[in-house]
Structure formats: C-alpha cells, structure tokens
Design goal:
Distance between the termini: 11 Å
Strand order of the largest sheet: 5-4-1-6-7-8
Largest sheet: 6 strands, parallel
CATH class of the largest domain: Alpha Beta
Helix content: 25-40%
Radius of gyration: 16 Å
CATH architecture of the largest domain: 3-Layer(aba) Sandwich
CATH topology of the largest domain: Rossmann fold
Order of helices and strands: EEHHHEHEHEHEHEEH
Strand content: 15-25%
Length: 191
Amino acid sequence: MKKLALDFDGVLCMSYPWLAKHMLDRFDIDVGNVETKTSFGYENGDQLKEACDVGTETARAILNYQQYMLPVRDAITFAHNYASLFDNPVPITIISARHQSTINVTEKWWEKWFRGLPFSLYLVENHLEKRRVCEDLGVTHFIDDRYKTVCDLAKTLDTVFCLDWPYNRRPLPQNAIRVNKLNDMIPYLTA
C-alpha cells in the first residue's frame, strides 16, 4: 500500500506572499515572490539574517497572517480526491518544517479549508528531519516544493513528487516526478 505525506507551505498553503509582506513591513526588506525567485529561501536572505532571526520572524509572520493564506492551486480538490481513494477515512499526513509555535494556527487553517477531512500534522525542526519522520511513519510517497528536500527524500522513499515552482526547476532524481498540480499525483498513487 502506498502511503503519501505532504509538505505544507508551498504545497498546501500559499504562505510566501504573506511571509514576504511581513518581512517588508517589519524590516523594509523585499524578499521577492514565488513567481520570480530562483531559489527556495528568501531573496536578500543575507540582509534579512542581519536584521533578524529568520526562523523566529517566519513563525511570527505565520502567526500573524495564517488566517489570510489561501490553499495552493488545487489543494482542496486533491485532498478530497485522495480521501475518496479509501473505503475508510485515512488521515492526510502533513510533515512540515514550520516552527512548533505555529501548530494551533496551522491546524485551524486546515480545518477551515479542508472541513471534515482528517489529518495528522508533524512539525519537524528542519527539512532534513522529514526523511526520518517518513521512515518512522512508513511513508512511501511525498510531495514537497523544496528541491533539496525532494533530493534527500528520494534517497529512501519509493517516489517523491516535486510541486513545480520557478525556484525548484532543476533536474530531479530518477524516482522524483515533477507535477504542476497536486491532482497530477493521483494516477501514480492508484497505479
């Protein structure tokens, strides 16, 4: 049986515009946008690191703006389509490198947009811990938008999906598949 887990930011939740707004409003630093940035992290990241503790400020931005963040592309229809593959409700597994302080707003956001769909949320210290959590949970398939995470997870998982964004357009490992939307994974999960 294939077991899927998903990243949160950039896969389920369109958080970057609000993170960028926070950094601009608070520090007057333009960190770019998802359509033009060519790497995963914040643009002007060195300047941002001089101005603040980036992890703390990212968590603060999430706490302040989570209520305004929208689901990514077809996240809602995918979640329902995925749930319909099972006779009994199976929680959708989310593994995110969000700060622990964001757990409540993250859960409330899921419940707002994905009403009635069960989920399991695991927050890890950094993207490299995702592989350990996947192994512990028996995850065989994962989707992320961070290129380094896709490459790391591809070392041990059956298939890793990379949700296409300009900042992750590089050659993928052999067992990684680039998808333009989440529903593009369904045929691989049902094969």
